[in-house]
Amino acid sequence: MFLQELSSSVIPNIDSVDSKLLNRKMKCIQRIRYNLRNKFWSEYLEQLRQHALKRDMFRKLCFGDVLVDEINKRRINCPLDKIIEIFPGWDIVA
What we know:
The protein is mainly α. It is built from 1 helix and 2 strands, in the order αββ. The protein has one helix at residues 19-57; strands at residues 66-68, 80-82. The radius of gyration is 28 Å and the shape is rod-shaped. The two termini are 34 Å apart. 0% of the residues are buried. The mean pLDDT is 74.
């Protein structure tokens, strides 16, 4: 994952280290890492799901379909395009 421990060459004096403090810090670090990992995966999976829903909403384009080129103009002034050939893209949407 993207949170990895950094290796250090410094070793603290064992006599001056408080075990309770170390345990508390370690639990805090583990909790933060766990929460961050869960948040990352839940948001990432939600974005993937939304992307899949958007992709499925578009119907497949077929040969001979007519498309409106600009949607901000009045319909009478909108240039129209007709599909004469389909090239499927990398995202499987033609």
